[in-house]
UniProtKB/TrEMBL annotation:
Residues 218-333 form the Peptidase M20 dimerisation domain. The keyword Nucleotide-binding does not apply. It comes from Massilia pinisoli. Pfam families: M20_dimer, Peptidase_M20. Keywords: Hydrolase, Metal-binding, Signal, Zinc. This is M20/M25/M40 family metallo-hydrolase. Its cofactor is Zn(2+). PANTHER family: ACETYLORNITHINE DEACETYLASE, ARGE_DAPE-RELATED DEACYLASE.
Length: 434
């Protein structure tokens, strides 16, 4: 699908903001009523899931949350299965639920079971506020709140008699926060589901705009990693800048500062997350840690930098990598350097199909009296599972619950956003599958 830019994108988004409210038909009114009538049960399911620690590396906890949600899908008449990952990947696996039908579009719903909070985290599992309508806890908004929205939306469709005949697949991954490698394996089943779908909806947390209005995501930046290795000529520090050259640390500083000054452009970021330098460097790549030894009177001979790169599309990636390689090649005297890039998540390009989905979602929200929906800039979100399927099907993300402080001790959730999210999602799924 072709990426939409400039005036065409602005015009399309303007159409979204002015979508006309057409009201709800009788079935849709039943769907909305079903969501609202079962809001307490939704909160109870959220609490039950959040109280189970499911840090990405806690395979047992991830499976336990998967079993909790699997029962909900079983009760809805879905065929469910657990997909194990190879033992060497050290990941719990994924929950898949499917329901065959004969009408409407084939819809793929995405969520994830894991959180960034591993066992032993000091962050409380669950804390309910004192009448402020918010809860805090491990993964409440990222993204167990979104998982609950999926389930509650489907339950409402069933209660309104609107689920039969719909063609729906659901995949809740067990390692979204740190996807297992190779990703061709950890996301292979997701890609196959996408190939048998027409639309993909992902329920990562909803990000309200500056006025508190809900949004959705039509594009996300790709991610890659890069590693810079620099070599210098070890010698007495009295010879630095002269016969012994500049050393590995100065060359590393030159390269990184040149990246900052000469490579940056809108939508592109590159972040050096780990730097080790000295005369003896050891990097534990698997655990992203290492050691460095050196002395102030010895010129450093080695530096290693591990970093990420985020870009809007492949042309932007190619421009950035070409500039970075050119900067690396112009070494200071007495030094040499190499840089290597590794792609990770593909870009979710802004396409006409994605914008059409946003328009349908905004109409459903307006028809339910919940206001319009804006679009989140691609650079305002991190990487997500939707990016593995977006090149294959029209896609929309950010349909989950609203909260603050994701991945932090202050992660919280606006409880009412579960009801709002379930109403919007149920109406959108209903309209797609009619």
């Amino acid at each position: 699908m072709r990426r939409m830019t400039g005036a065409l994108l602005a015009a399309a988004l303007a159409c979204v903001h002015t979508a006309r409210a057409d009201g709800l038909d009788p079935t849709e009114q039943k769907i909305v009523a079903a969501v609202k009538a079962h809001a307490p049960q939704a909160l109870a399911l959220l609490e039950q899931s959040v109280r189970i620690n499911s840090g990405t590396m806690n395979a047992r906890g991830v499976r336990d949350v998967g079993q909790l949600f699997r029962k909900a899908f079983d009760d809805l008449g879905f065929s469910t299965r657990w997909i194990d990952m190879p033992p060497g990947m050290h990941r719990a696996g994924h929950l898949v639920a499917t329901r065959d039908g004969n009408r409407g579009k084939r819809v793929l719903l995405l969520g994830h079971l894991d959180t960034v909070f591993e066992p032993g985290s000091p962050v409380p599992a669950w804390q309910q506020g004192a009448g402020d309508g918010r809860v805090r806890g491990q993964g409440v908004s990222d993204m167990k709140g979104g998982d609950v929205i999926v389930i509650e939306a489907l339950r409402a469709l069933q209660r309104a008699g609107a689920l039969d005949g719909a063609r729906i697949a659901v995949m809740f991954t067990g390692d979204e926060e740190e996807a297992g490698n190779p990703k061709s394996v950890s996301r292979g089943d997701m890609v196959e589901l996408a190939k048998r779908s027409d639309v993909a909806l992902s329920f990562e947390s909803n990000i309200p705009d500056n006025e508190g209005q809900a949004t959705a995501t039509v594009g996300r930046r790709a991610t890659a990693t890069w590693e810079l290795q620099v070599q210098g000529r070890q010698g007495h520090s009295m010879g630095v800048f002269g016969t012994n050259g500049y050393g590995a640390v100065y060359e590393t500083a030159r390269i990184l500062d040149a990246f900052r000054r000469e490579v940056a452009e809108p939508g592109l970021t590159f972040n050096p997350g780990v730097i080790l330098g000295g005369t003896d460097v050891t990097l534990d790549d698997a655990n992203s840690r290492g050691t460095a030894f050196g002395k102030t009177n010895v010129i450093a001979n080695t530096t290693v930098v591990k970093a990420d790169l985020r870009y809007l599309d492949y042309p932007q990636r190619d421009r950035a990598q070409a500039r970075m390689r050119d900067i690396v090649a112009h070494s200071l005297p007495g030094t040499s350097a190499t840089i290597a890039f590794h792609d990770s998540y593909p870009p979710m390009a802004v396409t006409p199909g994605n914008l059409k989905l946003l328009d349908l979602y905004a109409r459903a929200s307006q028809d339910a009296g919940l206001g319009t929906i804006g679009a989140v800039p691609a650079e305002a979100r991190g990487a997500g599972d939707i990016q593995f399927v977006a090149p294959l099907v029209d896609s929309l993300d950010g349909l989950g619950a609203s909260g603050h402080g994701a991945h932090s001790p202050d992660e919280d959730l606006d409880v009412a956003s579960i009801e709002r999210g379930a109403v919007r999602a149920a109406l959108l799924i209903y309209r797609l599958t009619r």
